[in-house]
């Protein structure tokens, strides 16, 4: 169980601090460390992933906590497909706190896999499929209670997330009441609307979470009705008691979109 009191993360301050360089790879990525935090910094100064050194399994960034809210949509999720390793925030939490969940990880970038293992405590025993999210879904034959998708360009939405076929393949990978959780970084309102229209052609039930103070927008999508807020809040309380992570504040900010008519 996690016992860390959540630290306040000032992303803007960290982007301008004189942090210790732990590792530099090429001109576009480096691993930095400062005041008990370790993170990957891109060449534009943005932070790609972050870890608390004294408790690596604790999910620090708010959008990562938002993605973990996908655990609340099933009373007892047994399987999770994570499309986009990053530096292993989801893996560290699930493997250490919820070991009963069968976790499958996919990552297209071999460097991120290397950084995750060498500097972000991703266990060597946990396999990672070196593949793109869309190719993996095309050939996938398994069913998952949760499909979590955090793939993007350095700044903006990855191309597969703009296609209808991606969401059709994701739906095929889910169990009957499974949930797709997406992290989006839309550059314009029009882009967000276009993505949402494609999603709604496949998933009638969608919940939105607009992460405060950052550009991330999270969507939770299903072909079956999603639990209401009291149920999610109750499950958040149980998860807090079991793992030490509190997601109840996110439950209060979720927006239920009207049911889509396209699947009727």
Explain what you see.
With 264 residues, the protein is of the alpha/beta class. It has 2 domains: 42 residues, no CATH class; 195 residues, Vaccinia Virus protein VP39 (Rossmann fold). The chain contains 9 helices and 14 strands. It has an 8-stranded mixed beta sheet, sandwiched between helices. A 4-stranded antiparallel beta sheet has the order 1-2-3-4. A hairpin with a 2-residue loop joins strand 9 and strand 10. It is globular and about 55 Å long. The mean pLDDT is 94.
Radius of gyration: 18 Å
SS field, number of helical segments:
9
The percent of residues in helical segments reads 25-40%
Q: In terms of structural class, how would the helical and strand content be classed?
A: alpha/beta
**Tally of distinct domains:** 2
Order of strands, main sheet, comes to 7-6-5-8-11-13-12-14
H and E string: HEEEEHEHEHEHEEEHEHEEHHE
Query: Between the first and last Cα atoms, what is the distance in angstroms?
Result: 43 Å
Overall average pLDDT: 94
CATH architecture of the largest domain, by name, is 3-Layer(aba) Sandwich
